[in-house]
Amino acid sequence: MVRKTFVNRKNELSSLKNHHAREGFEFIVITGRRRVGKTRLLQEFSKDKKCIFLMCEERKWEYNRDKFNRIIGEFFNIPTPNFKSFRDCFEYLVKKEKIIIIIDEFSYLAKNKDIIGEFQGIVDEILSDNDLTLILSGSAVSMMKKSILSHRSPLYGRTTAQLNLQPLRFSSLLEWFHDADMEDIVKIFGVADSIPKYLEFFKGKNVNREIKQNLFSPDAFLFREPKMLLEEELREPETYYHILEAISFGHTRTTDIANHSYMEAKNVSSYLNILADLGFVEKEISMLDSRRKRGIYKIKDNYFNFWFRFVSPYFTEIENWQNEGAVSDFENYFNRYLGTVFEDVCRQLLNSSGDYQKLGRWWYKEDEIDIIGLNEKENKILFGECKWSNNKVGLKHLEDLIEKTEKVQWKNEKRKENFYLFSRSGFTDELKSYADKTDDVQLLSLDEMERAFKRSSK
Prior knowledge:
The protein is an alpha/beta fold. The chain has helices at 10-21, 38-46, 61-76, 86-93, 106-110, 113-127, 141-149, 170-176, 182-192, 196-199, 207-215, 221-233, 237-248, 254-259, 265-277, 302-311, 315-319, 324-353, 395-405, 429-436, 446-456; strands at 26-31, 51-55, 100-104, 133-138, 161-164, 281-284, 296-299, 358-364, 367-375, 380-387, 416-423, 441-445. It has a five-stranded parallel sheet with strand order 2-3-4-1-5, with helices on both faces. The chain has a five-stranded mixed sheet with strand order 8-9-10-11-12, with helices on both faces. A two-stranded antiparallel sheet has the order 6-7. Helix 4 (86-93) runs parallel beside helix 6 and helix 16 (302-311) runs antiparallel to helix 18. The chain starts with 9 loop residues before the first helix and ends with a helix. The model has no long low-confidence stretch (mean pLDDT 91).
């Protein structure tokens, strides 16, 4: 039994409510990757309002038109009408009281090119002078952009609001799994990211066992989801599998990605650009480095990153109920994988404080600093190290960090330096004693991070 809940989304709900409260016609478009919670948000927004809610299905447009007819009949408690087009449906609806009309998974309708032209006529000739709210939502991000938001679309420039729904923040997982400890929540975040649909499969009780049940079993929902999403969005999905798998194993530069994807380097960039446009990957630049060609690629979504690292290489074996190799790999390397996940959690915590306007990683040759934060107005710079280890962090870790900061070129003569150390397993007495004597060093254990997250979310 999956757990369903609704957390956060305060800003998104407030935006929808504010637009609906205005007089006149409101045309809102909501995009976002599948499972991110668009439908749940729309249900929460419309639950106490007069609303006609059409959930489109991946069928012929006539089927969805007839479904719209049935919903109109049920809403007004009349015999099911027999409107032959969506235009006829809307001409009927504008004669009624002020309502909200939501068409979810509009991208299924948009596969019929004539539908977009029909909706241009509906917006321009029927709805624009009426007091009504129309919301179109879709998960096929590339199609939604092309059919509605692109300057070539007949509907371009007609929206009054656009909302690209993002995954939840890590702090929302503390509310979702309020009985789980911080370490287990980091593990869940590392596997399911903060995608509401994926979080529903976890209870936070025995997380390692839940991961094995949900990812390494052929009958589990989370086992084959990435294949379905990529095949829906992309041509040549097998090429993208190779690219994403290469990145998940740490091959992050274009040449390395090509070598591990059976491709020539000159051909990789176009594929990476498409994955970036869809929100699957992003290019990361070392802080304070303006040379964008020197960046590396990473998978934005922890679920995709975990899946391509631990599931994809063993997909055929798992599908045949032979998951021993995958489980062994997971047990041996999961903690190492969580190191970069923990860095993201630490950055989100620092970002919630608002003290540093820019946060990111820094690297130069063989040196790397997990987090650098910049406060331009106050000439403050933060240096952070994040240790997801079974060992306590000691004074030597701080000394190594300080040594690396000398190579960071930023307002060297007048900057104020602060050092943050984050640790899964706590700190040695020697380091704690040193930190107690200075305001420049902050030590944050998992418990202290959890308290800080909860304070920032109030």
